[in-house]
Every structure is written in structure tokens, then in C-alpha cells.
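User: Here's a chain of 748 residues. Predict its fold as C-alpha cells.
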Amino acid sequence: MYDFLDFTIRNSQGTAESKLRAAVADEWTFVEYDVEPGFVEFTWTYEKDKYLSSSVPGGDRAKVRNIQVSKTVAKTPQCLDCPRGMFSDEGSSECMPCPPNTYAPDEKSSTCLPCPAFTKSYGGAVECEAASTPCKESDFYEHPASECTDNQLHIEYHWIFPQLCNDTAAESVSLPPSKDIPCPEVQCRAGQEPSTEDTTLCQNCPEGQVSTDGSACAQCELGHVPNAPTTYISRFERESGIFTTGCSNQCQSQGWRFLYDHADSGVGNGISESWIETTVNTEAGKTASFALDYTLQCNSGHGELQILINGGLSQIILCDGCSNVTKTTIVPLAPSPLTINNTIRINYRTFTNVNMNDMCDRATIEGITIIGEPAGGSTDCVPCGSGQKAEGLVCKTCPAGTHSAEMSAMCEPCPSNTFSSQGSEKCHECGKGMTSSVGASKCEWSAPLQFEQKVDGIDRQFDFGSLASALKASTSAYVDGWYYHINLEAKTSSSESNNKRSITASTSPCGPDTFVCRINAQGEVQDLGNSASLSASLGAVQLIATNYEANCNASLSADGSIATVVGLYCSLSASNSSNILVSRDNECSYSLRIESQYACPLCNNGDFYSYNDACVGGERQIVYKSLGGPEHQCFSGYAPPTNETTTAGCTDVVISSSQWWIVLIVFACVATIAILFFSLSCVMGYCTYKFYSKYKTVEIEKQQLLASRQNVEMADDHMDEMDKHDGSGAGRRSRKDEIDVTGSTNHI
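Assistant: Prediction complete.
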């Protein structure tokens, strides 16, 4: 099946001629037609099949453009006669088809005539046909005629309207007589309780109360509120005014039939669309839903059930057999900033006029449930979450500076030296160097941009005012499309001051309450830490900035916060500007590093030592030097004096003439000792030289003797070989020189 666009031209005689029936076309197509003279009418009709377009949103449509009509004359008012099967009121601009079970046998009809008894017609009929089908039990229904009185309920039976069967036929069943029965016990649903006026009816729980099982409604316990109210529609009566209905094309039932405990789409229809419509109210900003209990009794390919919300198609359910099993479908209703009435329309559409069995050509509605309608009753109590409190019928978010655990009835203020943001489960400790009062939404510097801590047993004071200014003046770090900024002036106000400085409100792009942030090219600002803790160690101060409102990935951050570690490293060799180095561990953890002389602790007098210089003119210059080492690396703060002198212990030495002989004796003694020491050194040096020379001589002689012995042995061996060779060696004996390797020689 396909969608089609039909184009029809109707001439002045009322004859309509179809000129075009176009199927799917991806490109614009130009068409041109001749038109007869006279008053003509152009009609474009878009015909939709049962399928929705899944690839292109809004793709189920037809488009027409550039309509041009040539050789036209000024329009002369002209009235056309309505054709047979149609009618119009005086002054109408169009003719309407006659409703089902009526007909218009003549042209120019102003009204349609009702079909005689036991006859029927489709919409737009020019005549009625006999309703020869005998009535069956499915053609009537029972209806309570009144409310339950004295435990009696009066029941009456009625033919289903409109009556499409012939109850006078011989095979027709008759309506059962009315009767009284004991009032049945009603089983109310959740969110309802039995009515105090009619025990056969249920009423919704009053506002603020709930019923989980259909029994008496009750208040919620502390820390809980009623859930979204629920409304049930389980009785379907034409007179109730809850529903409107209708049918178009080949209809007999004039729309849906109201059968007290259910409604059906009618029977005996051909290719048609039978609809039922109601309106439900939803609260502003609340999520609501619509649940439909239904049966769809039709063969595959015969039809479908459509659900439309506020004119938009939300769901299609295709025919799939004649099962009468009740099913449920749920359609969400979009939240709105305003309290609105939602129009819900249910269409039963048929594509063929094959109608073998009335019970296999219909849809039924067994019940409707609207969750989120204010007039309904609540089915359960829900606990308020952490960071909320139960107030009236809703859970309200705790304001900043307070906190609450789950199922709390109130928000508790944060103690001093803690803080919380809006909707917090707990309060967070102010970091070192920060403080707050009771019920604070943020912590502030204990002293503006001042921080004190003992480092390696030494009391240290830090002043970050100059570093804050340097960070604002320096170029921010750019990593992966983000500019990173550090705002040490966060959590300060214009009223804060001390004896050294007045702090002005922060002009950082991060804002006045954020220590670390990053900004992309689109101007999006991400808060990487709006609370801070300071901790000093040798050579560095660590600032840990945290954003507890980040809702970060739970697998990366247990409490959903973003943590940023900023290392402020003391470097006297760094320039006055402060560059930022960034590393990103993951989306919940960042590390920043800064090296600056402004990150060093302030100097104090314990970082210097002093000594007295030579005494000149009765005065000594006091010289101050840094103690050195990492523990005494500092910047600014205490500055030792540069021109400090003292006269303490400073006296010029003067030698008199009577004391010169003492000086000469001392000089002579020193000279004698020096000469003796020099002489002794020479003697020891000579002896050492002689000993070493003798040692070397002995070693040389020893090596020579060893070489001589080896030569003698080689000569003797040679003589023995010669004797053996010529046989003349008898009686000859060789002697070897024996050499004393210790240094003596025995002659041969």
C-alpha cells in the first residue's frame, strides 16, 4: 500500500474528473491540464495508508507549489446544487454527506431523511437498504436504571444504538425483562475507596490521601507525599458527556457504541473511520500518561487502531486476528509549563468492506486510566529523596545552606565551618583556610587570600594576592578545546579587607564563587571546583577544588563530584607571570600545576642568620644571609635591614714600643719552626728517593738472571740433541749452571 495525492477538477455542471493520482515522488513534478470554460473547482486530496514513515520525520505528507491558472476572469458568485446523498444549510460553502442511517434521494437537499425502521445506510447514501439481520444477544446490553437502594439494583435491557438488526424477524431474540438484583459488592482500584453514598460505586481519594488497594484512603507518613493522582474511566454512557464520537465514509453505527461497562467501534461499517474522543487535564510541569485497556477483533490487513494525542498520531495497533483478549497500551503525555487539557482521540480504521462477522470487525475499550490528572486519586505514598523535604503534596528541594536525608520532613541548616548547595544530602566541610557561619551556602577565606600552616615544624604564612593578580594577567591554559582558568579570589566579597589589602569582587570568567573552571569556544563554562581546601608542604601549596553539584559519572566519582587538584609550587626563578599546566585524569578529575615566586611562603626573620663584619673605625657592619635550603625558600614578607651597624666589641689594636721585643721573639720562633720543618721534609724526601732507586736496581738484576738461566738450559738441550744425532756423545755429560734466584751466581 502507498500514500497518494489525488487532483480533481469539478466543472460548472458539477461533474468531477480525476486528473492525477500520484504515488511517492522524491522530486518536484510539473503537471499541466486544460480546463473547460465556466466556474470550476480544484481539489487536492492526500490519501494516507496505514504505515508511518520511519526514516524521515514528517515524511508522511504531500506538497503543492506554484499553482498558476491562466485566462481567468473575475469570479462571479455562483451557487451549485448539492448532489444526491449530500445536503447543505442555507449560506453553506460546501455540501456535506448524509450521516449513517439517513439518505438524500434528490439533488439540492437541505436535510437528510432518516431511514425507515429496520433499514440502514452508510454515510452519503441516496437510499436505505433493509436491515434484514435478526437481532442477537450481542445486539442489546444491560444497564442499571438507578442507584442501589435498600440493597437492590434495578436492571434494564436496551437495544444497542443505533439498532442495526430487525427485532421483528422470526429468528430475532427479544429484550429480556427488567429485574431487581442484590447490590453487588464493589471492588475499588488503588487510588479509590467505596462511595459513602452508593456502595456500587467507587470514589477517588481526597487530595493528600492515598489508597494502595482500593480500601479506605489515608494520609501519608512524614517524609512521604502522594504519588501522581490516577483517574479511571470504566463506565461508558452516551449521556455522561465524557465522550464524543462519530464516523466517516461507509458508516452504519454513527460512531462508537456506549455499552455501560465498555464501548465498541460499531458493527456493519464498510471502509470507514470510527472515532471516540475525550479530554483529560494534566498539571503544569508534571509528567502524565494515558493507559488504554482494549480489544482489537479484526483480521490482519483489515484495519487498525490509532491513538492521537492533541492531534498528533502517537501509536498505531494493527489488526491481527479476532481475539477478544484485553490488552493494555500506555501513551505518555508530554509535560507542559501550563495546566492543559489533552485531547485524546481513538480511531478504528478499516481498509476493506469485507465484513463476514460483526464480532470480528470492531475494537472495544474496556477501561481508560489517566495518571497525572489532578482530579484523580493517589495510589501510593512516595518518599522524598535526599536533599528534599515533604511539604504539602510535593517534595521540595532543600535550599542552599541546608541538607536532608531521604524521607525527611524538613531541611536542617548546615553547622558552622560547613556548607551545602541546593538539594544537598549532607553538608561539606570547609577546607583549610576557609570558614563559614551556620546555614552557609559557601565557605569564605578565613583572611582574604591569606593562609597559615606549620610546615616542617616552622610556622608559615602565605599571601596569594599577588598570585591571584598574576593568574588573571597571564594566558590561560588551552587543552583539548578548553581554556582553563584559576580564580583564587573566589569566595571573597567587596567588604572583606585586612590591614594589608582590600579585596574587590572577582572579575574572573569563572564567576565570583568558582575557584577553577574551563571555557570552550562557544562560551560554555564548566565549574571544576566551587569549594576549596588548602594544604601546605615543603615547596608547594595544594589547593583541592571540588564541585559537589556536577553529577559526575558514578563509576568515576562516588559522590558525583568533580575534583581538581591545583599545585602551587614555589619557584624563585619563575617569572612574575604564572603559566598553568593542565592534565586531565578523567571527566571527574583534573590536575593543574603552577610555578611562581608568588606561591612561596612569606619570609620571616627565622629564614635569615647574621654575623658581624670586620671592625672598621670603631664600628662593625651586621651582615644578614639566608639560611638556605628548601625549608627556608621564601619570597617577600620580612626584609632584613641592609645598613645596620654595631659598636659592640669593636676596639682598634695599638702596639707600644716596649712590646716590640715580644713581637720579635714570637716572629723568630715561628721562623725557626718553619726552617726545621722544611729541613726535615727534605731529608725524608731524599731517603725515600734512595730507597726507591735501590729497589728498582735489584729488580732489574733479578730479571736479567732469570733470562740467563733460560738461555743456558736451551743450549744444553741443543748439545744433547747433537750427541744423539752423531753418536759421539758417549761419556760426555753436560752441566747446567745453577742460578740462585735470590741474587748470587755459581760459576761453572
